[in-house]
Amino acid sequence: EINLQDAFNQFRKRKMQSIKQVQQNVVPKLRSTEQKSELRKQFLDQVHSHIGIPYARCNHPSNSDLFNSPYELDCCALVRIAICKMQDQLGFKFGLWNQAYMFDTLPIRYDTYDQLKPGDLIFYQGEYT
């Protein structure tokens, strides 16, 4: 009998193989440093455009604007919506997956914080409560 973790690992393996096939069959679009910087700026502009949308409505008083907001965005949803709105500029479509999927499929890793640039995503291990 397969458990949830084994099923996820099989799914992840198939997805990574699929990504590898796509990467082998597609000529990467090389961008200049300036183009990459502009994309980072656009990403940050997209993220900043959502300032004022609550992380979770339930954390606010029931008579507040934040509690009554039609939307709420956690960190994963914020990244997804920004990337989704930029899919034409970025040249790819980002699926509706969670941060574990983002971590597993985003290819660039840095060893130290001093290598980070504005717009980089930081993933860390935590415990869901």
If you compute it from the alpha carbons, what radius of gyration comes out, rounded to the nearest whole angstrom? 18 Å
Shape verdict: globular
Query: Strand content of the residues, in percent?
Result: under 5%
Low-pLDDT segments: none
What does the average pLDDT come to? 84
Helix and strand content put the structural class at mainly alpha
- How many strands in all? 0
Q: Work out the helix count.
A: 5
- N- and C-termini, Cα separation: 27 Å
**Topology as a string of helices (H) and strands (E):** HHHHH
Share of helix, binned: 40-55%
- Largest beta-sheet details: none
Describe it.
The chain is mostly helical and 129 residues long. It has a domain at 33-107. It has five helices and no strands. The chain has helices spanning 4-25, 33-48, 75-85, 87-90, 99-105. The protein starts with a helix and ends in a 24-residue tail after the last helix. The mean pLDDT is 84.
Q: Topology of this structure?
A:
Layout: H1 4-25, H2 33-48, H3 75-85, H4 87-90, H5 99-105
Helix pairs in contact: 2-3
Describe this structure in a few short sentences.
The protein is mostly helical and 129 residues long.
Sum up the structure in keywords.
0% strand, single chain, 129 residues, mainly alpha, Papain-like_cys_pep_sf
